[in-house]
């Protein structure tokens, strides 16, 4: 059996370091916003190239707090429209709703599955105040073009970088997290940088936003038992921060290994029934997922099951077709709907053995 993602194998590489770090945490017993959180925040902001990093409880909170932070600062207000890709993971859209803002769902580019610049331009009205670009599957969205457009129209540009830790632009070697006004990351265990539980972070170069977010994530409080604003409880766990510091050292190597596997798939899968993903060969993709398209998906998944190859669908139901988002069910989003019908993710991870990669290629080619 080739598993879709062998988390045990991924984390076993760090078992000894994790155990030592846990022991130190237990000795220090500073479980909430201890030194390990500030150390990881410093390391991760350095890694992304931003001035600031704020650890949060998870990725959804990171997104929501960015929006609430801008509301607190008077840069967004209730009901403002926020552009989001229609084919994103539902968290992006939920964050906008949780902040009492209005998501505007926009069709993606059918090749990259990332926000389409043309579609964004088509839908841009005066009520739109921000764009959330999602680096879907680990591939950077068209950040420079979206930055330019946002500057022209005085919009905030926000990144959902939950799938793109370490992805880098070709032109300026700028990393995900440093391509917008503020970026949200998730450290959900299966992400390229994954904790041993929930975790998230925000990166930004905006010192005012940074100060506000530090308050918002911690009861609106800077000084214990003194509450300046109406805050939340969304802190990155101190012990998770130590695990993340350990794994961060391996992130570039892990991403490189993912790219090597992706290149093998792209070179050697030659089945005309399988549409391979768009990739320009650069470091702008970290292959959180290797997503192919197939017309008769149920057929293909049965075939993969028969050959003991793990697979997943990122994601099987378009957000506007979810019961929770029935308010958007009237929308006509044919590209998004087509994508959700046809996509399937093949196994890819830094711990996949070469023979496993070869087996996947062989099996997919005989379908
Ligand atoms: C994982 C993910 C999130 C949410 O992260 P959580 O830590 O699970 O809350 C948000 N957006 C995208 C695109 C994701 O993949």
Automatic annotation (TrEMBL):
CDD domains associated with the record: AHBA_syn
Family that this chain belongs to: Belongs to the DegT/DnrJ/EryC1 family.
Signal peptide bounds: none
Residues modified to N6-(pyridoxal phosphate)lysine: 191
GO molecular function: pyridoxal phosphate binding; transaminase activity
Gene3D superfamilies with a match to the protein in the record: Aspartate Aminotransferase, domain 1, Type I PLP-dependent aspartate aminotransferase-like (Major domain)
GO biological process: polysaccharide biosynthetic process
UniProt entry keywords in alphabetical sequence: Aminotransferase, Pyridoxal phosphate, Transferase
Active site: 191 (proton acceptor)
The name this protein goes by in its record: Aminotransferase class V-fold PLP-dependent enzyme
Domain of life: Bacteria
InterPro entries per record: DegT/StrS_aminotransferase (IPR000653), PyrdxlP-dep_Trfase (IPR015424), PyrdxlP-dep_Trfase_major (IPR015421), PyrdxlP-dep_Trfase_small (IPR015422)
Isomerase found in the keyword field: no
């Amino acid at each position: 059996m080739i598993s879709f993602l062998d988390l045990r194998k991924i984390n076993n590489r760090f078992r000894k370091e994790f155990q030592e770090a846990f022991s130190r945490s237990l000795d220090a017993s500073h479980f909430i916003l201890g030194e390990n959180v500030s150390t990881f925040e410093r390391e991760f902001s350095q890694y992304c190239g931003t001035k600031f990093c704020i650890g949060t409880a998870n990725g959804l909170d990171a997104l929501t707090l960015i929006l609430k932070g801008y509301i607190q600062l008077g840069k967004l207000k209730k009901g403002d429209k926020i552009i989001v890709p229609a084919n994103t993971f539902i968290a992006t859209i939920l964050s906008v709703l949780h902040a009492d803002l209005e998501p505007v769902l926009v069709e993606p580019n059918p090749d990259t599955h990332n926000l389409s610049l043309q579609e964004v331009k088509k839908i841009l009205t005066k009520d739109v105040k921000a764009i959330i670009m999602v680096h879907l599957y680990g591939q950077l969205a068209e950040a420079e073009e979206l930055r330019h457009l946002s500057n022209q129209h005085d919009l905030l540009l926000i990144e959902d970088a939950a799938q793109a830790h370490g992805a880098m632009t070709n032109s300026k070697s700028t990393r995900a997290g440093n391509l917008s006004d503020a970026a949200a990351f998730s450290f959900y265990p299966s992400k390229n940088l994954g904790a041993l539980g929930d975790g998230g972070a925000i990166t930004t170069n905006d010192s005012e936003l940074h100060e506000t977010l530090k308050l918002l994530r911690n009861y609106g409080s800077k000084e214990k038992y003194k509450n300046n604003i109406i805050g939340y409880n969304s802190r990155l766990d101190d012990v998770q921060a130590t695990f993340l510091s350990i794994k961060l050292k391996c992130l570039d190597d892990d991403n490189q290994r993912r790219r090597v596997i992706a290149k093998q798939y792209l070179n050697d899968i030659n089945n005309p029934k399988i549409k391979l993903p768009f990739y320009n060969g650069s470091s702008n993709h970290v292959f959180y997922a290797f997503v192919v398209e197939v017309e008769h998906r149920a057929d293909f998944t049965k075939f993969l099951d028969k050959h003991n190859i793990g697979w997943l669908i990122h994601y099987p139901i378009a957000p506007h077709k979810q019961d929770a988002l029935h308010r958007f069910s009237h929308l006509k989003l044919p590209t998004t709907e087509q994508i959700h019908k046809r996509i399937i993710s093949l196994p890819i991870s830094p711990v996949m053995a070469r023979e496993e990669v070869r087996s996947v290629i062989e099996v997919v080619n005989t379908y």
